[in-house]
Amino acid sequence: MSVLVPPQPAAVYVSRRSLLSRALAGEPAIFFAGDLVPRNYAANVYPYRAHSHFLYFTGVHWPGAVLLGSGDGWEIFAAPPAPDDPLWIGPSATWDDLQAATGVRKIRPLAELRTALDSLRGVATLPAIHPRTRARQASLLGRPWGAHDESESGAVALAGKDAELADAVISLRLQHDAPALELLRQSAEAARAGHLAGMAATRPGRREADVRAAIEAEFAARGMTPAYGSIVTVHGEVLHNEHSHHPLRTGDLLLADCGADCHGWASDVTRTWPVAGAWSPTQRALYDVVRSGRT
Predict the structure, then answer these.
(1) Where are the alpha helices (DSSP H) in 80-207?
(2) What's the rounded Cα separation, in Å, for the pair 77 and 142?
(3) Half-sphere exposure of 153 toward its Cβ, with a 13 Å CA cutoff?
(4) For residue 143, which of 16, 87, 185, 293 sits 20 to 30 Å off, Cα-Cα?
(5) 183 occurs within a structural domain
(6) How far apart are CA 260 and CA 258, in angstroms?
């Protein structure tokens, strides 16, 4: 996939990394962007989204890339582009462009990462979400956790420097900075427009999929993607309904749980409305109870 420059100035990411380094007292840290995930064969992959912490500190969706550093000495390690990339995926930002846009000191070939790590006394990290990337981390950094070392909740037990890094990142991200708030507002506005479009597209005789398409079209028009699998269903009793093939009938209520991903910042909005445009007396009474919070 093409790697594009971040949507916000380099100073945003430089500041975040500086605050993190201060919290770690200058100790180095490493973040993994995560790999492309094949669907049914290697060249056919799922839509890519960088792991959240890598994205927070660099602003780029860069498959396989790694951010390493401390203080003002942060570097990105990545696989060099292949000669035929422009033919398959089109133009991509150059490494010079990405270095300037992220504010890192240097971008280096991924093959140099091992040597860079060997020059450090130790480095803190946070386990990647995807098992394959997490297993590579564990092997590269000598961690006891790997692809299957996690609790039922999906959490990996952290200790030492990794636990300190987790605390520092949590503390830093508990209060959003102004650039984060701006992307959150854009995401919320996209969700608002999507739900309104979905309401306008709802009528008896159509399908759930028609409404879902109207909602997600508003995300696409803003260059965003769904933040998660959209739920648009007349069967709201199924909490994570994956299907949207049911017809809409008079008397049905339609539940829409949809949010937009704005460069890693997500909205998450759930609303319910009557398919025919008017509540029955029972539906109205129940809706009012839920909306008021009464039990």
Answers:
(1) 85-89, 95-102, 113-118, 131-141, 160-173, 178-201
(2) 19
(3) 3
(4) 16
(5) no
(6) 7
Instruction: Look at residues 185, 178, 190 and name the one whose alpha carbon lies nearest to residue 227.
Output: 190
Instruction: Please give the structure tokens belonging to residue 130.
Output: 């995807």
3-class SS of residue 237:
coil
For the chain, 295 residues long, the average pLDDT of each consecutive 10-residue run is 92 98 96 94 91 97 96 95 86 93 97 95 91 91 70 70 96 96 98 98 98 98 97 93 94 97 97 95 91 76
Dihedrals φ, ψ of 38, to 5°? -65, 145
Containing domain of residue 220, as a range? Answer: 188-292
| Pair of tokens at residue 160 | 């030492």
Residue indicated by tokens 């991200």: 173
pTM: 0.91
Same domain, 202 and 139: no
Q: What is the pLDDT of residue 66?
A: 98
Last residue of a domain, one of 125, 144, 173: 173
165 and 125 Cβ atoms separated by less than 8 Å: yes
Parallel/antiparallel/unpaired status of strands 75-78 and 106-109: parallel
Q: Which two tokens stand for residue 124?
A: 């803190």
243 with 230: CB under 8 angstroms? no
